[in-house]
């Protein structure tokens, strides 16, 4: 996935560079800014998607957590957990598991409730 993104970024940079020779200087800077903004948004989306997948798979793989009953969402590195687990200990373990994933900046578990 990273190689594919690198090729996309290289292609976008090349297209931007080629357009400089065809565009007047007035239009060159906004085009570059727009391309940089698009690349940054794409990187964030890829990172958030990867984090969500990694957290979810880690929760499911842990036999002490009922990972299938936990919903995971990520926005700019902040993971939100929601759903229902059996105990407070399981809730705490789910939070610790999410915090241990690379790229996670914070975990919000206000929506994750323990049944007991």
Fold and architecture overview:
Keywords: Periplasm, Repeat, Signal. This is Osmotically-inducible protein Y. There is one protein chain. With 116 residues, the chain is α+β, with helices and mostly antiparallel strands. It has a domain at 37-114: 2-Layer Sandwich (Histidine-containing Protein, Chain: A), CATH 3.30.1340. Helix content is 60%, strand content 20%. The protein is built from 3 helices and 3 strands, in the order ααββαβ. The chain has helices spanning 2-22, 25-61, 88-99, and strands at residues 70-75, 78-85, 106-114. Strands 1-2-3 form a 3-stranded mixed beta sheet. β1 and β2 form a beta hairpin. α1 (2-22) runs antiparallel to α2. The N and C termini lie far apart (42 Å). The model is unreliable at 1-5 and 18-25 (pLDDT under 50).
Summarize the structure.
The protein has about 120 residues and is α+β, with helices and mostly antiparallel strands. Helices cover about 60% and strands about 20% of the residues. It has 3 helices and 3 strands, in the order H-H-E-E-H-E.
């Amino acid at each position: 996935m990273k190689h594919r993104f690198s090729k996309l970024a290289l292609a976008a940079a090349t297209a931007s560079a080629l357009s400089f020779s065809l565009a007047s200087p007035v239009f060159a800077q906004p085009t570059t800014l727009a391309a940089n903004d698009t690349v940054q948004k794409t990187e964030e989306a890829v990172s958030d998607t990867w984090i969500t997948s990694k957290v979810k798979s880690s929760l499911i793989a842990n036999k002490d957590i009922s990972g299938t009953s936990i919903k995971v969402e990520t926005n700019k590195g902040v993971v939100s957990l929601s759903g229902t687990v059996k105990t407070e200990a399981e809730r705490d373990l789910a939070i610790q598991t999410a915090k241990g994933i690379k790229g996670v900046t914070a975990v919000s578990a206000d929506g994750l409730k323990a049944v007991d």
